[in-house]
Amino acid sequence: MEGKKTLNLETKIGNVQINEEEIIRFREGPLGFTDTQDFVLIEEDDDSIFLWLQSVNSRDIAFPILEVELIGYKSEKFIDASIREQLGIAQDSDVSVYSIISIPDKVEQMTANIKAPVVINSTKKTGVQYIMPNPELEIAKPVFKALREKLTASSNVAGPCDASSTIKRRKSCVSKEKRLNS
Questions:
Q1: CB distance 159 to 152 below 8 Å
Q2: Contact 42, 54 (CB under 8 A)
Q3: What is the pLDDT of residues 19-51, one digit of tens each?
Q4: pTM, whole model, 2 decimals?
Q5: Whose CA is closest to 158, among 148, 147, 169?
Q6: Closest residue by Cα to residue 70 from 166, 135, 152
Q7: What are the structural domains, with CATH classification, of the chain?
Q8: Across-strand partners of 67?
């Protein structure tokens, strides 16, 4: 029996080792990156609520992302029948929906691209980024204040968590928040 193939990947946050099975295939690439189809999700550290959607083939193509639930949206809002079919989504538990985040020097001016979510089927390792037809969704929605309030409120409910202005806290708090909102 053949073992899992491990790859050493140079990323914006340093070198990481990934298993080949972790690669997520974007058939058409994220918007603006149609020639880049293979990505992985990378955690910068255990306390961060942010992930990196990192290209496997280019160190310089990486996007900070955040689960849409953490900024006040339900995943179901972003998953229609065509996305379910395209990604082969059988169960809601197979899918995660993210927003690409822009974090300028003044973190208080952080924005999320709600208009073009990143949807990933974690079971089939497929993903897509697409433009939502809803005109009310923003490309650069300010999220710092709402995110800080949500994390502070959930830390008060979920137990001892770091909800400081650095917008970081333990994963257990995020998990508890999801369970509380289910």
A1: no
A2: yes
A3: 999 999 999 989 999 999 999 999 887 778 899
A4: 0.81
A5: 169
A6: 152
A7: 6-181 (2.30.290.10)
A8: 98
